[in-house]
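Illustration 12: Amidohydrolase YtcJ.
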Amino acid sequence: MLLDSLYTNGSFYTQQGRRPRAHSVGVHGGRIVSLDDELPASLFRDVFDLGGAAVVPGFNDAHCHLSYVGQALVQADLRPAACGTMDELLAAVDRACLAAPEGAWVQGAGYDQNYLGNQHPTAEQLDAVSHGHPVWLMHNSRHMGVANTAAFDRAGYPGRRNVTAPDGGAAPADTDGRAFGLLQETARALVMDAIPGPGVEDVAEMVGAGSAALLELGVTSITEPGLGAPQHIGHSLSDIAGYQLARDAGKLGVRATVMPYLTTLHGLGDADVEGSSGTPPVARMGLDLGMRSGFGDEWLRLGPAKILSDGSLIGRSAFMCCDYQHEAGGPEGNRGLLQFPAQELRRRVIGAHRAGWQVATHAIGDAALDVVLDIFEEAQKLYPRQDARHRIEHVNVAGDDQIKRLASLGLIPVPQGRFINELGDGAARALGPERTRLSYRVKSLLDAGIEIPASTDAPVVSGDPLLNIHDLVNRRTSSGADFGPEERISVAQAVRAYTVGSAHAVHEDHYKGSLAPGMLADFVALTEDIYEVPADTLRDVRVAATVVGGRLVHGSLKG
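Figure caption equivalent — predicted structure in token form:
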């Protein structure tokens, strides 16, 4: 019997310290069985010539909304690259409304007010181009959005009146009490709850479309942060069923680790016991039948439970220790907000920790970071666990002492390098020059001894790993401004984060993230060697071929 495939004549960067380079990789049953000449070519059924290409393990996006990547492909594209002005955005909405069936909801995603004269679209502006359709536009942060009057009508708020935001949200209104259209944080649900939710088949289609798009970029694994709680994040209560259907139908092309949103967890009904410090017990929080992080297999697996503690930096809703930089016409004294009262956040996070979950808490502002650090420290004191690897998503603003504390508590920060380019100018305006140096820190995290993952938060920004690596290495905004140049890292550090680091962040580094016998045969051939090209040309490197489980799924190779 012949083994499956041999990929040879490549320059493999294995991410293995003992054997950092190889020229051939042998594959059987989806896993690596040999490096270099350990097994002769005659033992393999198929032999592929990489033509000397540089090869790295498959890129693993540790924080990627795969289903939303797919959904964005069928919505109006409002990203700054597509709509650079308010007039262009309104024209895109106009076209989408003209093309939509009568009475149907029209949705768009990706707008950023920082590229629109620091103005969000208003309901009245959308009314003028909606042709009678209810319209909902999602901000690129996905922490806010704008609805037109017809959308408010459908949601039970005729004329945009009597709109009351829930705790953790805001719905700005004029002096007559009419909502402007902008809904922030938890207030998004006021309109989003009225939009017909996608079914299991719809989610499966989104997952399939997102998979196909990411495979072209060399992404072979993702972690989707937050599913199953459409009032917070996710499409429906059956999101994971959509993932399962996508897998059954052969549409799940990338390996997916999925995070149920923490509000989908509930009390498990077991007897409480007192914590080790003598404090009142915190009830265990879990899914039905006690399932928790780690359930599943190498293609579809439950990861951490995800929860938001605060909002968006460029949207100025992230919870900060100091006021945002004031802008003319904007509110004064704004420090953002927590999405949950601190005690409620504590109850949920510690309950999930106690039940054995890995927990991933979104914290962008430095004040939110302090709240989350306190909760994780208390959780470990009350209910000690070995190697929990709890995560803090984003950590967009952090001081030196907070980074030291992250390291000492064994927490994993999950940064996004691409934010520097696409969102950096807006972040700098929000923070001011003194506090900008505390933003999007990466080298400081590495210097503290933390194994960091790499991620994009796509579709908030581009999901392209090579653009992300470019920005981690160069740290320049879209306007060309340097952004914390002292936080630049090397290509080798960025690639390790995208492979070993991302696998480590979800307890998958024993079978994913490096190229060695026994590991998954997921790797990417590049058009140029990113370890050798000038730093300012990293963005020009492309993916020539993507291999998942030893099978070529994108590009072409000589066979």
